[in-house]
Fold:
Amino acid sequence: MWLLPMRAAAGEAVRAIVVKLINEEVHSVKKSWYGSAILLLSLSIVLVLSGCSSKGDAAGSAGTDGGKPETLKIKIADINTNPTFRVALDQGIFAKHGIDAEIINFGTPAEGVNALFIKQVDVAFGADFPVLNAVAKGDYSIIASAGQATDQAAAVWKLYVKDEIQSAADLKGKNLSFMRGTFLPYLWDEYLKAEGIALSEVTLTGQGAFDEAFIALKQGDVDAAWFSGSALTGKLAALEGVHELTDMSKTPVRLGMGLVAGNAFVQANPDGIGQFLAAVNEASAYAQEHPEEVAGLMFKEVKQPKEATLKDLPTNPWKVGFTQAAYDSLAGQKKYMVDTGIIEQDFDLDSKLDLEPLKKALPDKVTYTK
Structure:
């Protein structure tokens, strides 16, 4: 880009010389065919230089094209069961908001959040636990909340156990699965505590994805595991030797969800981040209004059964914004993580919120005030 001013200046200088030559040549040779040829050649050079200079000036105009906003390339961490980003991409909602989106799939949202650390993605989403884990480790900020900590959303999380386990008391001495980097250790802790069982009385075994936990439970490598999503729970309901014991709505745990990004990326692209959040909000509304279409998209993209998408959509709609309830959910989860040593160094939660892009793009969606 630094060459453009030099090209423009050079173009002006050459034009001045050419014009002088034209005047001199026309004066000296006037109507001769030789003079006419030089005149035509000189005019052609001026036109070419003018075209080059104009083109260079436009290219240096802050990435605009006919008044359209500059396009921002964003790599987004996603999972196969989440339709929101796919809807935004498929319906042109990202493009309308100036976002060139690339969706990168992971086994769990927590894996997507971890991908921020190696700059594999620019933006990720996840439950409070992995989001807080990210911002505690460095220069990352929460840019919005995306979910509601409701009973309905909590009921989506179901505990499947081997048939020999008929009550929570039977979990003593058993091998319990959890997804690494997720909130599930916290859920196990709270659930078992309410049932009078200490974590020291069970074994916790980490898995990387739900499919891995499903196979472990099927093969008997673990005795119990939490799952969410109708596609998986449908398979579990048909699996011999296991049954549903309870769901998360019967525990004190409610699940917040947030969007997180690196500070440098947000600070370099505040307007683009705002447009990204506006696009996600629009896509979420579109998904709720067009369930059949979204079910078809999810089957086409990731082979998720249409009935599973239709069942999951109304139970956990994305609500882009940031409320006092979202803050309280994060604060409660952070306290647990600090108290248990998961987060080694406590931090000021407010310092890890960067809500300015959200406030600018969706001002009515931000009701939390510091």
Q: What stands out?
A: The beta strands are 72-78, 99-105, 123-127, 140-145, 158-162, 175-179, 203-207, 224-227, 242-247, 257-262. Residues 72-149+256-365 form a domain with the D-Maltodextrin-Binding Protein; domain 2 fold (CATH 3.40.190.10). Residues 1-66 have pLDDT under 50 and may be disordered. The chain has three domains: 3-59, 72-149+256-365, 152-250.
